[in-house]
Amino acid sequence: MDAPERCAQAFTVAATAVAAGAQVSLWLTGESTWFALPGRAAEFELPHSAPLPDLLDAVLAGGRVTACTQCAARRGITEADVIPGVRIAGAAAFVEETLADGAQALVY
């Protein structure tokens, strides 16, 4: 929530990519890690932006959502806390995904 436009843009681009048929993996890092928890996306509001819960649901339905291991740990977030479908993983998984043949990483 500390950078609402950047946050909304990342979720919007990820959900749009899923709708276009792209293989999507959205990583939640830093303060965005909180959005891995039930109800947190509903607390986010940005005028003229699609509701964050709808965008998150779209990505979860057709892609992958990952919360950074270190970011989650610093906030006391565990696998038992996150929304079903969200995983917690670290740098090795991120590097594996971004270096896969044909992968294109977009970082916001």
Short account of what is shown:
This protein has helices spanning 4-19, 52-62, 69-74, 91-98; strands at residues 25-28, 64-68, 86-89.
Give structural notes:
By secondary structure, the protein is of the alpha/beta class. The protein has one domain: 3-Layer(aba) Sandwich (Hypothetical Protein Ychn, Chain: A), CATH 3.40.1260. The chain has four helices and three strands. A three-stranded parallel β-sheet has the order 1-2-3. Helix 1 runs parallel beside helix 2. It starts with a helix and ends in a 10-residue tail after the last helix. The model has no long low-confidence stretch (mean pLDDT 95).
How many domains is the backbone divided into?
A: 1
How many strands, what sense, and barrel or not for the largest sheet?
3 strands, parallel
- CATH topology, by name, is Hypothetical Protein Ychn, Chain: A
- CATH-level-2 architecture: 3-Layer(aba) Sandwich
The neighbouring-strand order within the major sheet is 1-2-3
Please provide the ordered H/E string of secondary-structure elements. HEHEHEH
CA-based shape? globular
Tally of strands: 3
**Mean pLDDT reading:** 95
Superfamily (CATH H level) name:
DsrEFH-like
- Compute the gyration radius: what is it? 13 Å
Helicity range:
25-40%
What structural class do you assign from the helix and strand content? alpha/beta
